C-alpha cells in the first residue's frame, strides 16, 4: 500500500524528507492555493520521481481541493447523485481532499457528475477505504455500469457490481457481496445476467488481490459459516455445490432463489450444514392465475423435497414466505401426517 500525504506535513532536512523523525516512503502531494501542483514519489526520504497528478492519471483537467466545490441542492434520481459545481459551473476535473495531513480521497467529475472516486484511511497505512466507479450513458442507448467497494477495520465490508442494459438484450445484472470481519462472504445477491457483473474491480492498480468473483471464489473458505444467498439461479447454485464451495457452511438461507427441488437433494452432502432456511416469494391473490398455479406447484415440490432432506440427514429445515410456514401448508397429506407424528 502507498502512503499518501501532504508535502507540507513532511520535514525537509538537507533534501531528505521525514515524517515523525522517520525517513518517509510514499507519495507527497504539493497543493498550493487549493490546487494540486505536483506529486512527489519519495523513497527512504529521497525524491525519486514526480508527476502532476495523484492516484487518478488525468490529462488536461483542473485539479482542485474539495473545499472549492459546491454541491447542487437537487438530488438527481436518474444519475443517483448530487451534481457538483466549481465557480458556479458544472465541474469537470479532479477533486482532492485531505485529513490529518493525509490524502483522504480523490474523485473525477465530468459535467458535474461523479465518475470515479477513491478514499483512503487517513492513518498512514495507505489502505483503501472506498472505491466507486460510474460508467453512465446519459443518452440511454447502451447501458450503465457501476462498481462499489467498501472496507472497514482492514477488511472488506461490501462489494457491488451492477449493469443496466438499455438494449433489451437481457444482460442487465446485479451482484452484491457482504462480508463478515474475517473477510468471508455472509450474503451474496445475484440478479439477472451474472456474466455481465462478475467483474468486481475495473482497475489493476487497487492492490486488492482479486478482480473477478471467480478470483474470490478461488480463495479458501471464502463463504462464512452463516450464509445467505439471494436470487441465485439453479445452474449456478449447482456449480457451487459441485465445486465444494459450500462445504463449510453451517447455516444456509436461500432467499427468493430459483433453486429447483431436485437440487436440494445434493444439500445432504454438505456435512457441516446444520440449518437450511428457504424463503420464497409470497403468493398474492391478484397475481396471474397461471403464476399462482406454478408457484403453488413449486411450494408442494419444495415441501416434499425438504421433507425427504429432513428424513435423510439431521438438518433443521425451514420453508417460509412472508406470512406462513409453507412446509406445513403445502406438504402432501400423507407426509404432513407423518411430520405431525414425528413432532
Salient structural properties:
343 residues; 13-stranded mixed sheet; four-stranded mixed sheet; 15% helix; elongated
Radius of gyration: 26 Å
Q: Kindly state the mean pLDDT as a whole number? A: 90
Count helical runs. 5
The count of DSSP E runs of length 2 or more, i.e. the number of strands, is: 23
The helix/strand class is alpha+beta
- Regions with little confidence, pLDDT below 50 for 5+ residues: none
N- to C-terminal distance: 57 Å
Helix content: 10-25%
Q: Can you tell me the overall shape?
A: elongated
Work out the strand percent: 35-45%
Structure description:
- The structure is a single chain.
- Strand 10 (84-86) and strand 11 (89-90) form a beta hairpin.
- The chain has helices at 213-217, 234-242, 289-312, 326-330, 333-342; strands at 4-6, 11-13, 16-19, 22-23, 26-32, 35-43, 46-51, 62-65, 69-71, 84-86, 89-90, 93-99, 102-110, 113-120, 128-135, 143-152, 155-165, 173-179, 185-192, 223-230, 251-255, 275-279, 316-320.
- The strands form four sheets. Strands 8-12-13-14-15-16-17-18-19-20-21-22-23 form a 13-stranded mixed beta sheet, covered by helices on one side.
- It starts with a strand and ends with a helix.
- It is α+β, with helices and mostly antiparallel strands and 343 residues long.
- 15% of the residues lie in helices and 40% in strands.
- The protein is elongated and about 90 Å long.
- It has five helices and 23 strands.
Overview in brief:
This protein has 343 residues and is an alpha+beta fold. Helix content is 15%, strand content 40%.
